Amino acid sequence: MTTSGEFRYMDPASISAGTKPWSKVDGAYFSFTLTPHRRSVANLRDHLAPDAEPGTFGSDIDVSGFATYHFPAAEKTFSDDAAVRTGYYDEVKDLLRSKLQGSISHIEIFDHTIRRRDPTSPRQPVQQVHVDQTPAAAEARVRRHVKLPPPELDALLQCRYQIINVWRPIGHPATDFPLAVIDWRSTKPDDLVPVDLLYPLHHRGTTSGDDDDDDDRGKETLPDLTRAASTEGYGVKGETYGVLPSEAHRLYYVKDMTPDEVLLLKCFDSWAEGKPQGREGVAAWSPHTAFVDPATPEGTKGRESIEVRCLVFYDE
């Protein structure tokens, strides 16, 4: 089964030479223009094989940059931040250890975001094709979140490590504003544009954001849309990839994805094809975005979802 939708890509004509693009994490503004492109989207369910072996599309994240599994969680409401950070984080670690190939030495969860398509929610579904992390941002996340002396961190970075986004609907199927993913094999490096990611500094002690409180979880507030184009009160705290349009991109989604299912998105892999330590055929990333499925029934409940970003380290 295939549907279609409009996908918002970066407009290359809106990127000024010599000026790095930026976007705000709360979705309030981009320094560039997004242009809609209509694309067909295949239902990933039609391509899944039961009891799939490693190396199978849709069930092995190294093949295409994404994988989906039936993996119910004990946590259901995600309304208690402390419960998410303890119980659900442990469930995510169990999931990764059971589904990823290789000998995992350590998992460090550094962020989670709950999105609700509700005007009162500070985090909405993102309608922009993007990748969550660049290689530079991935290494910065390791150095920021893994508490080891610098020589040990340097040694850790010589082993394989990844950033994986674990995405799950909350409460009801994600029929409204489902998540679409792009097969890594249909992309090329020239499709990607580094973008500074700006975070609000309102909850920190200084205008630079350089104090002891470096944790943004649970501090999201609605942006001031009257000042959307201003960067005052924001600071650069990450780097993502914006994605340029390409007819070659192959898009997939999990139709009516339920809260008992998860979608793993690869944001970075130090063993990805093309990297200094890369392996041929190992996916590097998976661009993704929310989109409007024209087949969504009238009155469908607004999408709610949680995404958990994880640093995954291997013995290799």
From TrEMBL:
Region described as Disordered: 204-230
Signal peptide (UniProt feature, chain positions): none
Protein origin, superkingdom: Eukaryota
GO molecular function: oxidoreductase activity
NCBIfam families cross-referenced by the UniProt entry: CmcJ_NvfI_EfuI
Family listed: Belongs to the asaB hydroxylase/desaturase family.
Name used for this protein in its record: Methyltransferase
Organism expressing this protein natively: Parathielavia hyrcaniae
